[in-house]
Amino acid sequence: MQSSFQLDNKRSVTICAGLSGTGKSTFTLRYLVNADLAIRFCFDPDGEFAKRLDLEPAHDAYELGLALCNGWVIFDPHTLFAGRVTDGFAFFCDWAFTVSERVPGRKCLVVDEVWKYCTPAAIPAELALVTQTGRKRGLALLVNTQRPTKLNGSILNEVSEFVCFRLQENNALEKAGEYGFDLDELKSLPDLQFVARNLDSGGELRGRIKV
Ligand SMILES: Nc1ncnc2c1ncn2[C@@H]1O[C@H](COP(=O)(O)OP(=O)(O)O)[C@@H](O)[C@H]1O
Ligand SMILES: [Mg+2]
Question: Which value, to the nearest 10 degrees, does the dihedral of the CA atoms of residues 90, 93, 95, 98 take?
Fold first, then answer.
């Protein structure tokens, strides 16, 4: 097996936070389409990404292999893991991590609404591995959440880019405040408008996405 231990890859863990409907998934779709990525891995139990991208999801090992060749892997766990979405999630994180060793270039694993799969107290080992070690294989992580307070410390400690859409709840705002955001600004952001902070460079970016 070819080894592509990619030591020069910087850590790349992005958190995208915001209330429901503010633009997190749209931002993620835009990123996946526009970024220079060899492979996009999307865990898609609700079928939202397959539908919005108009792509066929992969249901089994054969379809995962085919999707890998196309650079777009949208995984629907309900065939291989009927009634066991969290097992499907662990499998997909592990699979993305494993195949990333063989594929040169930048890859990204996307987890929409990540609070469904981890809590501050517990994170699947397979997701923790991608978070902490993915960069050695060129595998970035992008997680979306309505609830930044529910993120596990493994993700919060590794975050390199924090993208915030509107937040409302005090605890959520306080969590964002720990990363240098202006809380009054976050509270009043219109839908689809975001502030992004790069925690390595300290750079800040404001933008608006179109649907
Ligand atoms: N399939 C879609 N096609 C076009 N617009 C959509 C679609 N789904 C959601 N939207 C719109 O995009 C905006 C942001 O939604 P979305 O990015 O899904 O928010 P979030 O992921 O933060 O809940 C909303 O105004 C929503 O109505
Ligand atoms: Mg969404």
Answer: -130
- The residue nearest atom 18 of ligand 1, judged by CA position, is 25
pLDDT digits 0-9 by tens, 157-175:
999 999 999 999 999 999 9
| Cβ contacts of 184 within 8 Å, gap of 6 or more | none
| Nearest alpha carbon, ligand 1 atom 27 | 21
Q: Is 22 in the pocket of ligand 1 (CB under 6 A)?
A: yes
Claim: this prediction has a pTM higher than 0.90 = yes
Superfamily of domain 13-208: P-loop containing nucleotide triphosphate hydrolases (3.40.50.300)
Q: What is the pLDDT of residues 60-103, one digit of tens each?
A: 999 999 999 999 999 999 999 999 999 999 999 999 999 999 99
Phi and psi, residue 9, nearest 5°: -70, 130
Instruction: State whether the beta carbon of 210 lies less than 6 angstroms from ligand 1.
Output: no
Longest dimension (CA), the chain: 52
26 Cβ inside 6 Å of ligand 1: yes
Residue whose CA lies nearest to ligand 1 atom number 2: 52
Residue 18 CB less than 6 A away from ligand 1 = yes
Please tell me if the CB atom of residue 147 comes closer than 6 angstroms to any atom of ligand 1.
Answer: no
* Every domain of the chain and the residues it spans: 13-208
